[in-house]
Specification:
Length: 394
C-alpha cells in the first residue's frame, strides 16, 4: 500500500509530508520511505494558530480547521507529484492535524474525569480535494481509554530503529521532546516512551518575544551559542513538577509556552542578562530535562547506550552538544546516521497509523500512553474509492 502521512507539530511552522510504501512480512509491517518534504505555513499563519491555541474565538477555530485542511491537502498532492505517483495510486492518507489544545491530565467535571485534546485540519477537506480516504484524529480514542493520547510515535520508532541486539533510545526534538526506549529484539510490547519536557517550543517563543530574528527561530543555534547559561534560572526551570513526574506523561504549549517565556524574560531583565543568555539556558533546560528523565525512568529498566536524535532540534548544534554533555553515558547520533531522515519520521508515523486503522489493528502502545489497552485509533473519511473495511479497495 502507498500511503501519505501528514503532520504539523507543536511549533506550528508548517506541514511535513511523507509518502511511504508499506509491505506486510508475516505479522510485522515494513515501511519504506519514497519521498518527504516540508511545506512552511504562509506568513502569519503560525501566529494565528498559536493565537487560537491561547484564546481564539470559536469562529477562528472553525475557520482555521477548514483552511488547514486545504493546506494539508495541497501538501499531499505535492508529495505525490514530486514522487511521480498518481493520486489514484495512493491508498490512504493519515493526518495528525494541528494541535490546538492537549489536556491529558484528568479534570473533574461533575462525576466525570475529563481528558481532552483537539487537533484541527479538516480530514473531510483532504479527502474531497485528493479523492483519497483520509484517517485523522488519532489521539482521542487513546484518551477515552484513559491514556495520554501521546506520544504516538513509539510504534513507528520500533519498526524503523529497533535493533536485534542493542538497546536504543529515540529522542524527537520537536516543539516538545519525546523519548522512545527500544529494548533489544523485536517485541513491541517491551517498548515504552513519554514526553520529557520542552524542546523547540520555548526556544522559538523566546526568539519571537524578544524579536531576535525575522525567521522566528534560532537558525543553527547561533543565537544560543552567543549566550551564557544562567544556573539559577536553569535550577528554577528544572523545578517544574512535570520533569520529575513518572510516566506515562505528555505535555504541550499549555505547560511550556508563552506564559513561561514571559517569566523567563522577566527573570533576565531583573538579572541584567541578555535574551541570548535565555536561549542558552533554555537549550540547557531541554538537555537537562532529557538527562534527568533518562536517569530516573530509563536506566533502571534498560541499559541504553545510544541516543538517536531527530526533529527540528537535531539541527541545533548547541542543543545536540548539550545532550552529549548531559548524558555522557550515551553515544548521541542523528537519525540520518542510521539511515532514516529525521524530519520525515513523524509524518511516516501517521502513514503507518492510518495503515493499522485501515486493517482494524491497534495503533497505540498502552505501556507508553497509559491507556487501558490497545485501541484502533482515528476517524475515517471515505475517499472516492472507499469500499468498506475489508482492506480491499482503499
Amino acid at each position: 500500500m502507498k500511503i501519505i502521512g501528514l503532520m504539523s507539530g507543536t511549533s506550528a511552522d508548517g506541514v511535513d509530508a511523507a509518502l511511504v510504501e508499506i509491505h506486510r512480512d508475516g505479522t510485522r509491517p515494513s515501511v519504506r520511505l519514497l519521498a518527504h518534504a516540508s511545506h512552511p505555513y504562509p506568513s502569519g499563519l503560525r501566529e494565528r494558530v498559536q493565537g487560537v491555541a491561547s484564546g481564539g474565538t470559536t469562529e477562528d477555530v472553525c475557520h482555521l480547521n477548514a483552511y488547514l485542511g486545504e493546506l494539508f491537502a495541497e501538501a499531499a498532492i505535492a508529495i505525490a507529484e514530486s514522487a511521480g505517483v498518481r493520486l489514484d495510486d495512493i491508498d490512504l492518507i493519515g493526518c495528525h492535524g494541528q494541535t490546538i489544545q492537549h489536556l491529558p491530565r484528568p479534570r473533574q467535571d461533575g462525576t466525570h474525569a475529563i481528558r481532552s485534546t483537539l487537533q484541527i485540519g479538516a480530514p473531510a477537506v483532504i479527502a474531497e480535494r485528493t479523492g483519497i480516504t483520509t484517517i485523522a484524529d488519532f489521539r482521542p480514542r487513546d484518551m477515552a481509554a484513559g491514556g495520554e493520547g501521546a506520544p504516538l510515535t513509539p510504534l513507528a520508532h520500533h519498526l524503523l530503529f529497533g535493533h536485534p541486539n542493542q538497546a536504543r533510545a529515540i529522542l524527537n526534538l520537536g516543539g516538545i521532546a519525546n523519548l522512545t526506549v527500544l529494548p533489544p529484539g523485536g517485541d513491541a510490547l517491551q517498548v515504552f516512551g513519554f514526553d520529557t519536557g520542552p524542546a523547540n517550543v520555548l526556544l522559538d517563543e523566546l526568539v519571537r518575544a524578544a524579536t531576535l530574528s525575522p525567521l522566528g527561530y534560532d537558525e543553527d543555534g547561533r543565537l544560543a551559542a552567543r549566550g551564557e547559561v544562567q544556573r539559577r534560572l536553569l535550577a528554577d526551570l528544572m523545578a517544574n513538577p512535570f520533569i520529575k513526574r513518572p510516566p506515562p506523561k505528555s505535555t504541550g504549549r499549555e505547560e511550556f509556552g508563552p506564559a513561561l517565556i514571559q517569566q523567563v524574560l522577566a527573570w533576565l531583565r531583573s538579572a541584567g542578562r541578555r535574551p541570548e543568555d535565555g536561549l542558552a539556558t533554555l537549550a540547557a533546560f531541554t538537555a537537562a530535562a532529557v538527562a534527568e528523565n533518562v536517569r530516573a525512568f530509563v536506566f533502571p529498566r534498560v541499559p541504553v547506550r545510544e541516543l538517536i536524535v531527530m526533529g527540528g532540534g537535531a539541527r541545533n548544534p548547541v542543543l545536540v552538544r548539550g545532550l552529549a554533555e548531559a548524558l555522557p553515558e550515551c553515544a548521541v547520533r542523528l537519525a540520518e546516521e542510521v539511515g532514516v531522515p529525521g524530519r520525515a519520521v513523524e509524518a511516516m508515523t501517521f502513514a503507518l497509523l492510518a495503515y493499522l486503522t485501515a486493517r482494524g489493528e491497534p495503533g497505540n502502545l498502552p505501556a507508553v500512553t497509559g491507556a487501558a489497552g490497545p485501541r484502533v485509533l482515528g476517524c475515517i473519511v471515505p475517499g472516492r474509492r472507499f469500499r468498506g473495511m475489508s482492506g480491499a479497495g482503499w
